[in-house]
Amino acid sequence: MLKIQEIQTKSILSKTNLPIGDYSANPYTGCTFACKYCYACFMKRFSNHPEVWGEFLDVKYWQPLKNTQKYANKELFIGSVTDPYNPQERTYQRTKALLEELKDSGIKLSIATKSDLILRDLELIKSFKNPRVSFSINTLDENFRRDMDRAVPIKRRLEAMRILYNEGITTTCFISPIFPQITDIEAIINEAQSYCHFIWLENLNLRGSYKPVIMEYIRTKYPKLLPLYQEIYTQGKKNYWQWLDSKLKAFAESKGLEYVYNDDTLTPRSKPIIVNYFYHELIKKNAKVI
């Protein structure tokens, strides 16, 4: 049973070392999309929740932000450890409240989501200068998607991306996490390339409490892939990612798409730019939001 509680927090903005922001904001603690591979489940350590990840949500309230103009030209990333457009946002509207507070601040806005609920705030988002929105999509297979999360169906994410793209908002198709030999990256690129400016690639990392969950899922649903997953996630070998990198680079070249590594400083082109984050530990914090 889902546990929801409303909490007070000192500040909604936190300084961050993420390469795409000076500040991060998470209007909720926890996320009811309950992605089985979610790295953000580590937040349970700080929130003292005994519930399973995905079965609790803290709704944040904060004191009104003072002197918001001091954030002008700073970079804000909304959704680093929660989806700001989880279903409960329809009721509590904490993400919308934050956008309302910051709309005249001059802050540079980036939002990450798996929900088309973001379309509710389309006009508000457009009031920011050069806002960016990324949609996480790591499969076109709804059966696999349902196994992995409770987020909105893939077609709805793609349609929301198309609408934002056509409204002039910089959009990113974030193919993450890539499940070896399960995520059809080329198919996703073919589907999304007409309505996104960037395509980000991030490999599946398994650590913490969700590693045995995913490994057992592979053992049960994809037993033929188990040796590969053991090679990657038990033996720590990088061969697969190196092979996939080469394969995708050749694919990008065949489609006339630019292919780069760990770079968030690029300006949108007429065709989407593919950014490989397989080696994201090499990222330096010098990126600028366009």
Automatic annotation (TrEMBL):
Record GO terms (molecular function): catalytic activity; iron-sulfur cluster binding; metal ion binding
Pfam assignment, any one: Radical_SAM
Keyword Zinc: no
UniProt keyword annotation of Metal-binding present: yes
Annotated ranges, domain Elp3/MiaA/NifB-like radical SAM core: 22-224
SUPFAM superfamilies given in the database record: Radical SAM enzymes
Protein name: Radical SAM protein
Species annotation: Helicobacter brantae
